[in-house]
Write a structure and sequence with these properties.
Strand order of the largest sheet: 1-8-3-6
Shape: elongated
Order of helices and strands: HHHEEEEEEHEEHHHEHHEEH
Structural class: alpha+beta
Number of helices: 10
Strand content: 15-25%
Helix content: 40-55%
Distance between the termini: 47 Å
Number of strands: 11
Radius of gyration: 20 Å
């Protein structure tokens, strides 16, 4: 069972997942686990961190996965939301350092688990390993499906899907898109010039508003984006 000081801070869905995941743990294992919070725009895991000292379970918030080594600019290739386990891929692959950087997009809360304790436990716990394998397979299937879909889309439609994803994750409107043009270009897989041209076109269609170069989306515009994508597909 989870320690009461951690269990009290959890929602019912979080507690249900963790109770199932940690069902085979003994009390000694929990002595090294702690709750950790980070504000937005902070680094949780940094590329080239050779210690790989902790595994994290994201309970609240959103993370941005960044590949630092593919080009001149960091490539932001995925977003992660709760509940998610991060930091153990390197343990499974025996990597010498962290493979990607993870930063917080929103204020986030985690369970922090010493890596040595985590890998020693999950090697012996068939139930926990099965749950973790299920999660990894779901991620792989979702990523592969997204890549297949994205391959056939034009840049205009890719931007619409990106904006819809941000709208779906928003807690309030109007929504300000926090990413820079360079970051959006990396997500779309095109040049900044192309990104600027597509943004100008969609602004002319009234799907969002530009203020000081930043994209702002109202709740009505969010519905229009969703309707536009439904028409396209």
């Amino acid at each position: 069972m989870l320690p009461s000081k951690i269990s009290r801070a959890l929602t019912e869905p979080q507690r249900a997942f963790l109770d199932a995941f940690f069902a085979g743990c003994d009390e000694h294992f929990f002595s090294g686990i702690s709750l950790r919070t980070l504000p937005a725009n902070r680094t949780l895991i940094g590329t080239d961190d050779a210690s790989c000292a902790y595994v994290y379970i994201l309970l609240n918030g959103r993370l941005q996965a960044i590949e630092e080594r593919v080009g001149d600019e960091p490539y932001r290739f995925a977003e992660l939301s709760a509940i998610e386990i991060v930091g153990d891929f390197e343990l499974f692959t025996k990597a010498d350092s962290r493979i990607v950087t993870l930063t917080t997009l929103t204020p986030s809360r985690f369970l922090s688990i010493p890596s040595a304790d985590y890998i020693a436990w999950i090697r012996q716990d068939a139930n926990a390993l099965f749950i973790r394998t299920q999660i990894l397979i779901r991620q792989l299937v979702a990523q592969t499906r997204f890549e297949r879909q994205n391959f056939f889309l034009d840049n205009r439609t890719r931007l619409l899907y990106f904006l819809l994803g941000e709208c779906n994750a928003a807690t309030a409107f109007p929504l300000r898109i926090q990413f820079t043009r360079q970051e959006i270009s990396s997500k779309l897989g095109c040049s900044i010039r192309t990104t600027n041209r597509v943004i100008a076109s969609l602004q002319n269609d009234g799907l969002f508003t530009l203020k000081h170069g930043k994209i702002w989306i109202s709740s009505a515009q969010s519905r229009q984006i969703q309707e536009r994508l439904q028409t396209l597909t």
